[in-house]
Write a structure and sequence with these properties.
The structure holds two protein chains of two kinds. Chain A is of the alpha+beta class. Chain A is built from nine helices and 13 strands. Chain A has two domains: 81 residues, Alpha-Beta Plaits (2-Layer Sandwich), CATH 3.30.70.3340; 132 residues, Sulfite Reductase Hemoprotein, domain 1, CATH 3.30.413.10. Classes of the chains: A alpha+beta, B alpha+beta. Bound molecules: iron/sulfur cluster (3 copies).
């Protein structure tokens, strides 16, 4: 073991120096908040054998194992890999993609968040950038995963359509809508599109399936929730297919890569340069 | 529209409880009924009326109507489903 420990390099591999000399906390890679029972067993064994028998849950669905000795790091990583667990990343690159349980599990979900989180992870995880870059995926407007606090946040929604012939004017959707976008006139439901936030509560509540919804993605850009807090903003309307979604996320990450100064967070770049450049690039990607 | 226009077999008032007990109380009431019978549920505006109808739908019952009591309450008419 060389005397000079390259902590920047170790950090890249998810290892963060602790106050206690010679120890560090190892961040693990968790995609979309899911771990298998086997993964957890492995983590538990490693924490017991190499750490102090406990783990720390991070605010972004990650797990860290504190009190790993720097000289045992390689051995620890090997033990983790055997149980299907990889180390995460820290520093200036694409971080863990977070997700809520989404439409596969949650009755309110509009999109399959876990599949999307895995796809985003495969596409971007660990990519070197001027600063850290976070993706978060949440299944609906309930926003359990807090989409807008990410550099790119993705939220499920639905493009809705009303079938008057199926509606029997029960009135349920009008009250289920929290945006006041619906009203009943002459036994028919009238939608005020300006008030609709694509939450799909009408679709989910209608007993006659008179509302149909096409799932889509509501994307926000430039969110951050650290020293500096800023809510990510939407640029384009609801995106209805994954190809367009990935074109748009590619555009955002490319814009950041091309324009940010080293150590500058996405929002800070947008504040320095204004949002026109990003808006133009994202709009072009949206149109295809 | 008044409640008396619609027929029902059983009535339950859930305006005296809060979420999530609202749906629990309503569910206990519908469990007492036979398939095809109608339960009328009086509930408060706000969260209950936003969520209780949807919960009945998810449980496989048939929503018939939601009427505005015009006193800050709504009455939901639900026909008990076959398998629920
Ligand atoms: S954000 Fe929506 S889909 Fe995701 S867990 Fe919350 S309620 Fe369910
Ligand atoms: S999608 Fe949501 S906001 Fe739009 S009409 Fe339906 S319930 Fe209201
Ligand atoms: S919930 Fe469905 S059936 Fe009832 S009023 Fe709305 S669209 Fe019509």
């Amino acid at each position: 073991m060389a005397d000079e420990i390259n902590y920047a390099e170790l950090k890249k591999g998810g290892y963060m120096k602790q106050k206690q000399k010679g120890y560090g906390s190892l961040r693990l890679k968790v995609v979309g908040g899911n771990l298998t029972a086997e993964n957890i067993k492995t983590v538990s064994e490693v924490a017991e054998k190499y750490g102090q028998g406990y783990v720390h849950m991070t605010s972004r669905q990650g797990i860290e194992i504190p009190f790993i000795k720097v000289e045992q790091l390689a051995e620890v990583k090997e033990a983790l890999i055997k149980g299907g667990v990889e180390a995460g990343v820290c520093g200036p690159r694409v971080r863990t993609v977070t997700a809520c349980q989404g439409s596969e599990i949650c009755p309110s979900g509009c999109i399959d968040t876990y599949t999307l989180a895995k796809e985003l992870d495969e596409r971007y995880f660990g990519r070197e950038l001027p600063h850290k870059f976070k993706f978060g995926v949440t299944g609906c407007q309930n926003n359990c995963l807090k989409a807008e606090e990410n550099d790119v946040g993705i939220k499920g929604g639905m493009d809705i359509e009303y079938r008057e012939d199926l509606c029997f004017s029960c009135g349920v959707c009008i009250k289920a809508c929290r945006s006041g976008a619906l009203s009943l006139a002459d036994g028919k439901v009238v939608l005020d599109p300006a008030k609709c936030n694509n939450c799909a509560r009408c679709v989910k509540s209608c007993p006659a399936d008179a509302w149909t919804g096409t799932p889509g993605y509501i994307v926000s850009f430039g969110g951050t929730f650290g020293n500096f807090v800023y809510k990510g903003e939407e640029i384009v309307p609801l995106i209805k297919d994954k190809e367009t979604l990935f074109r748009v996320t590619d555009a955002a990450i490319e814009y950041f890569e091309e324009n940010a100064k080293p150590g500058e967070r996405f929002r800070k770049t947008l504040e320095r340069l204004g949002t026109e450049g990003l808006t133009e690039k994202v709009n072009a990607a949206y149109k295809g | 529209m008044s409640q008396t226009e619609l027929e029902f077999d059983e009535f339950v008032d859930i305006t005296d409880v809060v979420c999530p007990i609202t749906f629990v109380k309503a569910k206990v009431a519908i469990d007492e009924l036979d398939a095809g019978q109608v339960l009328a549920i009086r509930m408060n505006d706000g969260e209950p009326v936003q969520n209780v109808p949807r919960s009945f739908k998810d449980e496989g019952h048939k929503i018939i109507k939601l009427t505005d009591g015009e006193d800050g309450t709504y009455t939901l008419y639900v026909k008990k489903g076959e398998e629920a």
